Amino acid sequence: MALPIILLSNENIEARNLVELTLQACEVARSAASQAVDGLLQGSERALQEVRKCEERLDDLDRELDQRLAPVITRITPEGAHELLACMKVVLDLERIGDLIVSFTERAVLVHNRIDMEDVNALTRMACVLENMLDQASKAFVGRSVDQALNVLRTDAEMDRLRSLLMVRHTESSEGLRGEESLQVLFMATALERAGDHAKNIAEETCHLATGHTVRHLIRGKDASSEQLFLDWLAQQSVTRA
């Protein structure tokens, strides 16, 4: 994925390379989510191995960024340093997403023949939503797009909804609770929901990078969602500047 014009100096090749490394990590995490769907639908050991390779690659990228960032961050502008710190946070979230996708896929391969198709469909939907969130989060980070970042925040609500539906299905009655299979389904749903939370963190970091303000500090009550409050704040800033 090609970089747009960004705050880092064009002469600082190493700093730009670290941003590229972050984008590589985004793509690796998205690929892991895609492979996880195959693991669920096919019970594929090959898919599990691919997911594990993605997780190992994310670990490597996280370590590489940590090792290379410190010497660079002291030689660039404050704006560039802010961007590299954002890269560090993004890659850390992606590394955690990789761990959660491995956990999901290991369980998926283990129980895919023993869980109801309704559960398979719901979990597949969650995994596809996660893949979409990661794709949108990556594009938002590249383009410093608040709109795309807010799409990720909105989509996270769908992850929460799907997990809640599975929770209700497996716990509200004795008929729904089916021993180990129910526990595995709920663990899998929780892993995907937590991965979605980390994708949401990336979107929030993008909003901060693009505007200089965080999403969370704008929340003053419980009547509006975080993304709506952020949109309202942006609109107010536009009026003030006009």
Structural category is: mainly alpha
The CATH class is identified as Mainly Alpha
CATH architecture: Up-down Bundle
Mean pLDDT: 85
- Low-pLDDT stretches are 2-11, 218-223
Description:
The protein is mostly helical. It has a single domain, classed as Phosphate transport system protein phou homolog 2, domain 2 (Methane Monooxygenase Hydroxylase, Chain G, domain 1, Up-down Bundle). Helix content is 81%, strand content 0%. It has helices spanning 13-42, 45-73, 78-111, 117-143, 146-171, 179-211, 226-241. α1 packs parallel to α3 (78-111) and α4 (117-143) runs antiparallel to α5. The longest helix has 34 residues, at 78-111. Mean pLDDT is 85; it is low at 2-11 and 218-223.
Write the layout of secondary structure elements.
Layout: H1 13-42, H2 45-73, H3 78-111, H4 117-143, H5 146-171, H6 179-211, H7 226-241
Helix pairs in contact: 1-2, 1-3, 1-4, 2-3, 3-6, 4-5, 4-6, 5-6
Outline:
The protein is mainly α and 242 residues long.
Descriptive tags:
disordered N terminus, 242 residues, Methane Monooxygenase Hydroxylase, Chain G, domain 1, 7 helices, mainly alpha
